[in-house]
Amino acid sequence: METVIAGFSALLDALIQVLRPLGISEPVFQFMLVSAILGLSIYLTLITGMFSLANAGFMAIGAYTGVILTQEAGWSLAGSLVGGMLAAGLVALPVGLPVLRLRDIYLAIATIGFGEIVRIVALNFDDTVSSLLTSLNGERTAFELLNGARGIIGIPRLTQTWMLVFFLIVIIGLILRLHRSRLGRAMVAIRQDEKAAASMGINVVYVKNVVFILSAMLAGAAGVFNGHLTRIVTPTAFDFGRTVDILAFAVLGGTSTVAGPVVGGMALAALPEVLRFLDEFRGVFNGLVLLLVIVFLPGGLVNPAGWRRAWQRVRARIRPASETAAD
Amino acid sequence: MQKMRGVGLMLLIFSLVLPAVAQDAAATEEPFDMATMPGLWETCPTPASLSGDLTIGAIFIQTGNASVYGIPQTQAVELALAEINATGYLGAATLNVLVEDSAGDAEQAIAAMTKLVEEDGVLAVLGPTLSTEAFAADPIAQENGTVVMGVSNTARGITDMGEFVFRNSLPESSVIPGTVAGTTAALGLEAVGVLYGNDDDFTRSGYDVFRTELEANNVAILGEETFARGDTDFSAQLTNLLALEPQALVVSALAAEATQIIVQARDLGYTGPIIGGNGFNSPAIITNAGDAAEGVIVGAAWNAASADPYSLAWIEKYTEAYGSPPDQFATQAYTGAWLLATAIRCADSTDKTAIRDALAGISEFPSPLGLFAFDENRDPVHEPVVQIVQAGVFAVLETGE
């Protein structure tokens, strides 16, 4: 097992050496892989027709749980990965049951609200517990676990590149398997027409909740990995901006295949570093790339039909008008 | 007609190029006032073994909301390096800086630090701007054995990350005790109301220190209220606090919220003192709050009204270069660049461990912040100041000690 990991790591090191001239160093590559996992998390809900924006909240739950398990309880990273995923999944269950009755923009607003609640709970958790303890004990009692706005600092960097690649490959394999399963077909049916799916005997509430929980668990896993990469977990890292980023992974990559959000996540995480040579203009170019993809490739980067259509449009421009008429 | 256009074009080109040339000439010809130049000119001899281009790195926020801090920091470092090179502080060597943007994001700070210390191989790094970025990125420099000096990190635990991690920005825990003790003595405080931002590590740390110090000085806290970053309406919290009739309002906030809090407290009829920390130490508070800022008391690492000759010279140089007076962030970044240059001068070597040891040994360093030294934890030691806004400017508060 160890020689396999060593060989795998050597292979990844070689890959990073190739990417380095582009500005992609090992930490950047690791954040690209975490973004790919987050992209897959929102992909699951999108292909079921649910516009859920709760991913940053579940990522926060995973990150806090995972970091507390390795730091306070002394668990290994593998154990805390399972713990973080379970915690996110357990929270997703009671949240999903009422919230998933909503559709479209209403679901989006409700799930944004959930993300904000997670962030604000993380901010005020210690203060609330201390004041509860103070009123119970009758004397001022300090309680420190999440450290409010200061966050948890000094986390060792336990996540390694091979773990992320291995996790991503396993997840992609499972999702490909899911597409061909009964649940996967039910997910597609619900996206196409929820009422028709229900009248054909699909348990819509069950399928939606299972997908919501799976999506939450993936976001939780990304949170555990991310916390052990950045060495600091603060509530501000999981604000609304993070949610928009995750949605952009799926929009840029496209959701027609499982490769879409993976490519989208990796591309968007790499872009600011690849464009570093542009100095203060890199934000502008970053936005420009996103805009061009959305305008010219509406189905995302990984979408063969979209590329074909874009190519046909380019070809029509290049050819003289007479020839186009003859087609 | 053709000729006329040609002449016009020539004139246009001259008018664009000439002032630039004239300015350059002025910059190089102007003799430096060496009496007010920072640096340990006497203690360490001019380095003999250094030559060529030396490079340090800087991670400052250039884009996004927090670039209001990062851009003055970058300008200050560039000004410091121009002086260091023009005065031959490093002998035959020229000191350059590679500035990387972190956009206020921990992940980008990690990428920028990895690039600077592993690929560019810089001698030392200034920054990152925010404490959250420092907690993420500084361990990379520590593992690489490269000095990193925070010039605006005030959170608890920054220098605990390792022996290569320094900072020259006074934490709130060094500034606030003097502020509370000084104002308690000067105003005879017995009971105050506290307002703080609870979703930001800086304002939250400030509140923790304020509370400890108020208790230590036997000042009763009548009530506490909180707000979030980006809030613009504080009237509910202020009304609650003012109903308790405090002698003073103690506020832990950043400049944007601080201005609104001052204005709204005055609108509610409050005339007493408002006491703040480092976050209040910006000329913008006075310009934006106007008359409402009268009587605001600010504890800070640096006083723009200080009569210190180094400070006066610095303000003049920065204002001349960039058209507006420097704030505390620019002053700390300027001092930081001079400190790194001094470590390189005193080490007389490009060995990173030698630079670290020389930096740790710096004491009695004359700077705009006052006489500067590092303590054994690589934290800054210099006198903080207590200021009060009087007649539209910061003045030193007479504490009667």
Rg from alpha-carbon coordinates of chain B: 23 Å
Q: In terms of structural class, how would the helical and strand content of chain B be classed?
A: alpha/beta
Number of separate structural domains of chain A: 1
Roughly what is the average pLDDT of chain B, rounded to an integer?
87
Q: Choose one word for the global shape of chain B.
A: globular
Number of DSSP E strands of chain A? 0
CATH topology of the largest domain in chain B: Rossmann fold
Write out the strand line-up for the largest beta sheet of chain B, numbering strands in chain order. Answer: 7-6-8-9-10-14-15
CATH superfamily of the largest domain in chain B: Response regulator
CATH topology of chain A: ABC transporter involved in vitamin B12 uptake, BtuC
The total count of helices of chain B amounts to 12
Helix-strand sequence of chain A: HHHHHHHHHHHHHH
- CATH architecture tag of chain A: Orthogonal Bundle
What does this molecule look like?
The complex is a heterodimer of chains A (327) and B (401). Chain A is an all-alpha fold. Chain A has a single domain, classed as ABC transporter involved in vitamin B12 uptake, BtuC, CATH 1.10.3470. Chain A has 14 helices and no strands. In chain A, helix 2 crosses helix 10, helix 3 packs antiparallel against helix 4 and helix 7 crosses helix 9. Chain A is globular. The mean pLDDT of chain A is 91. Chain B is α/β, with parallel strands linked by helices and 401 residues long. Chain B folds into 2 domains: 214 residues, Rossmann fold, CATH 3.40.50; 128 residues, 3-Layer(aba) Sandwich (Rossmann fold), CATH 3.40.50.2300. Chain B is 45% helix and 19% strand. Chain B is built from 12 helices and 15 strands. Chain B has a 7-stranded mixed β-sheet with strand order 7-6-8-9-10-14-15, sandwiched between helices. Chain B is globular and about 65 Å long. In chain B, 52% of the residues are buried. The chains are: A mainly alpha (327), B alpha/beta (401). The interface between A and B is medium-sized, with 33 and 33 residues.
